[in-house]
Amino acid sequence: MTTTLSSRHPGVLATSPAVEVSLAEPRGRLSLRARGDLTPFARVLGFALPERIGQRAEEHDIRAIRLGPDEWTLNTPMAAVQRLLEAFAAIYPDHPHSLVDISGREVSLVIEGAQASDLLSIGCARDVEAIPAGEGRRTMFDGTTVVLWKDAADSYRLDIWNSFAPHVLDLLKTGCAELAAEARQA
Amino acid sequence: MLLIHCPYCEETLPEVEFVHAGQAHIARPDLPSSQTDEEWEAYLFIRTNEKGIHAERWRHVHGCGRFFNALRHTVTDQFLTTYKAGEPRPELPVEGGDQK
């Protein structure tokens, strides 16, 4: 039966000998839309927003990824959300922008192991191996829009909307079982 | 599967990340109330249904989210070029050269 992933405890959800899928700890998530001069936002954040779509920047455990020409997602510790909302609100009159707390909208799955790319290839038409480590992309995974963070060649994080997460997890579980069966045959 | 180059992401990506959004370069009249019924009908409904090279809008909906324009050959389905929204339709070296 499907249960919402946000009601589960963080931990391992599916495994095979060479890849493991786990639910990440809750994180603060903020969606930032801004245009024009970005230096005031860099001053508030303490680091420059990434300039190319898919690029990431990180400092003090606050991670920023550029998703579109005027769109970023900030992934922060839960405790930092309120501070950032207030700091951005202070510069709003001079630098209009949109900053929305979307922490409750998504969960993150961590996919790690030598076959992590193989597992993702069952739902993602994109060549995930071609994404440079340390970057990320918004893409499509089995019909669902996800944000894929590539931390290393064999380590990914998937940000998925809550309502789609059970569907995506079911597919990843099937994929893990297939990879495990292949490993047994080999 | 078609591979489409997104001019904003500057990557060539699978078709499933994109949606088609109709013919490109159709400007909405500045003053709709000044239009005759025929002009308004032409704006709303009349499209070229090109057999050959067609300028059309696409949206990278499962990616950067932006609309952009593409020149696609409607017979071969080949994408000849893509360009950002707001830019004029580019001239191709030999339009339709080997696309027959």
UniProtKB/TrEMBL annotation, chain A:
One Pfam family linked to the record: SoxG
Superkingdom field: Bacteria
Matching InterPro entries: SoxG, TrmE/GcvT-like
Signal peptide feature range: none
Name of the protein in question: Sarcosine oxidase subunit gamma
Organism: Roseibium litorale
Lineage: Bacteria, Pseudomonadati, Pseudomonadota, Alphaproteobacteria, Hyphomicrobiales
From TrEMBL, chain B:
Pfam families hit by this protein: SoxD
InterPro entries: SoxD, SoxD_sf
Protein name according to UniProt: Sarcosine oxidase subunit delta
Organism: Roseibium litorale
